[in-house]
Amino acid sequence: MLDTSQILTYSAALAVAAAIPGPGMAALVARSVGGGALSGFCLLFGIILGDLTYLSFAVFGLAMVAEHFNGLFQLVRWAAAVYLCYLAWLFWFAEPQAFETDRPVQRKELLSAAVSGLTITLGNPKTIAFYLALLPLVINLESVTPQTWGLMLVPLTALVLLAVGAVYILGAVRIRHLLSSLRAQQRLFRGAAAIMVAAAAAMLIH
């Protein structure tokens, strides 16, 4: 089991890493502005699922497998980078629209938001660096048992990411009226696109 200092250190490090603006949070804000809080939280669910995937990789040593299958790992990196560029293209050319706050959100839109959150996170170099490089410096992964992973790390990770993501979502929803103009929406979407292109470039450089 983790002691109190490890729990606090991990929580603080994860919160800081999550709060730093990146492709995930950029997409979260854009989705929350365009689709409302429910759509934002669905995307956040995908982000959390992606983080838990990399957490599991780190805990169960699957990062070592990636090192032994370097060709496959490089293919995944390129695929993730291409997907980020595709999302950037969608954001860049997205047509700003007037908000309809009372419009019911379709189930397909919510599912799309969750899938986008997952794929963005799996291709996010910041997430990869945190779990596969920084996490071992914070926690002795050799001492982490399946029970510790399931009963402590998984719920702790989900709660921290939920708290940080909720701040972004509620803040975005709160300022929706400031982004009601088409020009403001276009700036937001193109800013998100630029962040995703930068993340894709970072994946291929490192």
UniProtKB/TrEMBL annotation:
Keyword Transmembrane: yes
Transmembrane portions of the chain: 36-63, 75-94, 149-175, 187-205
Cellular component, GO annotation: plasma membrane
Location in or out of the cell: Cell membrane
Protein keywords: Cell membrane, Membrane, Transmembrane, Transmembrane helix
Chief localization: membrane
GO MF entry, a single one: amino acid transmembrane transporter activity
Signal sequence interval, chain numbering: none
Domain of life: Bacteria
Membrane topology: Multi-pass membrane protein
Protein name: LysE family translocator
Native source organism of the sequence: Pseudomonas eucalypticola
